[in-house]
User: Which sequence fits this backbone?
């Protein structure tokens, strides 16, 4: 990651890289009130790349001893809360963090601007995610046609325009899935508990159904 390369070289010299960087001394939970420490030098250098006027950092997100070695721990400084500190530092890869957290880094890290990410696209994708996650359930999981189309369009744009995602197989599979959804006439609606029970009974009684599918049916909760 470009951010990591810039910070490592600034603090350790032009020939340094995170593979040969030492683990930082001190506790895993960084305290912004601590006096000058090696951890503080890293935090302050990373925050120079945070574009928010007053960065709100969830200090419990990252393992401060790994800032010199892990670009994932650096990225967590740009993310919304990932939970309590012991839980957050167990998230070791970018796949472990919420999509909204990654969008936050795309929006707030200046190393990503005008190079691989358009912050406007990331903001639009964040809005789409929040609409589905927060507003959808309050509307019985139903969006208006306009909301539905805008969500798909904004996510498609981010996956299409982001230079790093254009070559990422997982991202392109996601794009193909969105396109497939777009091409189908789909209606998403809630069903009753009785209807769910009927589906459960049907699935568990099909004799030739794949064992794995039958087990998933048996595990359904409603």
Assistant:
């Amino acid at each position: 990651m470009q951010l990591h390369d810039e910070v490592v070289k600034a603090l350790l010299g032009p020939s340094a890289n995170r593979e040969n960087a030492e683990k930082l001394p001190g506790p895993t939970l960084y305290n912004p009130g601590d006096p000058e420490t090696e951890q503080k030098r890293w935090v302050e250098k990373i925050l120079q790349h945070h574009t928010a006027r007053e960065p709100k950092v969830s200090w419990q997100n990252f393992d401060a001893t790994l800032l010199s070695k892990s670009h994932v721990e650096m990225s967590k400084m740009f993310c919304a809360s990932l939970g309590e500190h012991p839980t957050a530092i167990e998230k070791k890869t970018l796949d472990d963090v919420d999509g909204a957290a990654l969008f936050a880094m795309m929006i707030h890290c200046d190393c990503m601007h005008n190079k691989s990410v358009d912050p406007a696209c990331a903001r639009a994708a964040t809005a789409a995610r929040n609409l589905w996650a927060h507003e959808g359930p309050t509307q019985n999981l139903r969006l208006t046609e306009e909301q539905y189309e805008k969500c798909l369009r904004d996510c498609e744009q981010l996956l299409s325009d982001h230079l790093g995602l254009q070559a990422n197989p997982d991202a392109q599979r996601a794009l193909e899935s969105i396109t497939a959804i777009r091409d189908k006439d789909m209606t998403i609606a809630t069903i009753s508990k009785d209807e769910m029970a009927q589906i459960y009974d049907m699935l568990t009684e099909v004799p030739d159904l794949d064992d794995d599918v039958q087990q998933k049916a048996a595990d359904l909760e409603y």
About this structure: Residues 119-138 form the longest helix (20 residues).
